[in-house]
Amino acid sequence: LSAILGDAINLGLTKMAESSPGLTYAKLSWLQAWHIRDETYSAALAELVNHQYRHAFAAHWGDGTTSSSDGQRFRAGGRGESTGHVNPKYGSEPGRLFYTHISDQYAPFSTRVVNVGVRDSTYVLDGLLYHESDLRIEEHYT
């Protein structure tokens, strides 16, 4: 979990190893190389979504057949003009967009990192068709 936490809070493996007794950079690096990839994050997310989907209380929010999606933009340092990425909504300011699909049970079943130079609407179908959860989405809102 330390390698995942270091990734999640953008601390990095070196500082995570220094702040975690009994862990070394070599061990965290090995764990990250062998186990922490986009595919493993997607599989873990699917397991969490499936567990919530099957929980009786989740039915109070919805039946898991409706979803919505939207992007959340985060600014990045540097100059965007040099990359040539220009977005009509955000201009040439550098950054990343996290495009997330969420079910009517409030489970985020798909998240993609999108360059701000690309329209986020091009990722709507990716999240609906290629998520690994057991949700059967019949209706979607953007």
From TrEMBL:
<dbReference type="GO" id="GO:0004803">
    <property type="term" value="F:transposase activity"/>
</dbReference>
<feature type="region of interest" description="Disordered">
    <location>
        <begin position="64"/>
        <end position="87"/>
    </location>
</feature>
<feature type="domain" description="Tn3 transposase DDE">
    <location>
        <begin position="2"/>
        <end position="142"/>
    </location>
</feature>
<dbReference type="Pfam" id="PF01526">
    <property type="entry name" value="DDE_Tnp_Tn3"/>
</dbReference>
<dbReference type="GO" id="GO:0006313">
    <property type="term" value="P:DNA transposition"/>
</dbReference>
<protein>
    <submittedName>
        <fullName>Transposase</fullName>
    </submittedName>
</protein>
<dbReference type="InterPro" id="IPR002513">
    <property type="entry name" value="Tn3_Tnp_DDE_dom"/>
</dbReference>
